[in-house]
Write a structure and sequence with these properties.
about 220 residues; mainly alpha; 3 helical TM bundles of succinate and fumarate reductases; 8 helices; globular
């Protein structure tokens, strides 16, 4: 669970970095090029979409293993005498923030799964066409992003979901290194907690800046 969690955090950081290409004032040319590049990466060595589908399968496997590990861990704790079933790290912190994050890991995980499904249906499969012009079923990556985040309630859902993601990351990052035995001293615990805060905050603001700027018309004018 620790390894798959860190893989997912790495993906989130990479995804947030890619989203910042929305801020480039070139009417979406760089963002569209970035999106299309992922589809033809390593071409012609590999067929078009080969790398992207391989990466999707890898991330799906990491997500599946992470969910399965969470399910098994929760089941063991619920079945143990005197344990309430709450998600805690192997070396629980006395910090109120860590305690709250630990208690909400399961429900936060459920919110995240539902959000990921919505996110993929909206921005990848284009099944959910929020904000699309009437009669339009497909748009370029930049235009579909502008369309989606032009709806205030989509930005609100996104903000709530990203809060759940970042609370999950805050506890999960620290807990992963606890599982791997990295927080063996007070100093290392302090460093890991600081990194957990930094990464969680960076992810939240990194993912929320583009949608908010789109909503208020700063991007896409």
């Amino acid at each position: 669970m620790a390894v798959t969690g860190l893989i997912l955090i790495g993906f989130l950081l990479f995804h947030a970095f890619g989203n910042f290409k929305l801020l480039i004032p070139d009417e979406g040319a760089e963002f569209n090029e970035y999106s299309h590049l992922l589809r033809r990466l390593l071409y012609p060595i590999l067929p078009p979409m080969f790398f992207l589908w391989g990466f999707r399968i890898f991330m799906l496997a990491a997500t599946g293993l992470h969910l399965y590990s969470a399910y098994k861990l929760t089941g063991r704790r619920w079945s143990s005498a005197g344990v309430s079933g709450r998600y805690v790290s192997q070396k629980p912190s006395t910090s109120k923030a860590h305690s709250y994050a630990a208690r909400t890991m399961i429900w936060g995980g459920i919110i995240i799964v539902l959000f990921v499904i919505m996110h993929l249906l909206q921005f990848t499969a284009q099944v959910l066409t929020f904000g699309y012009p009437d009669g339009t079923t497909t748009l370029e990556p930049y235009d579909r992003t502008l369309a989606g985040f032009s709806e205030w309630w989509v930005v609100l859902v996104y903000a709530i979901a990203m809060l759940a993601v970042c609370v999950h990351v805050f506890h999960g990052f620290w807990s992963a290194f606890a599982t791997l035995g990295a927080n063996v001293s007070a100093k290392s615990q302090g460093v890991l907690k600081g990194l957990a805060v930094l990464i969680s905050a960076a992810l939240y603001f990194g993912f929320m800046i583009p949608p908010v700027l789109i909503l208020f018309g700063v991007i896409g004018q």
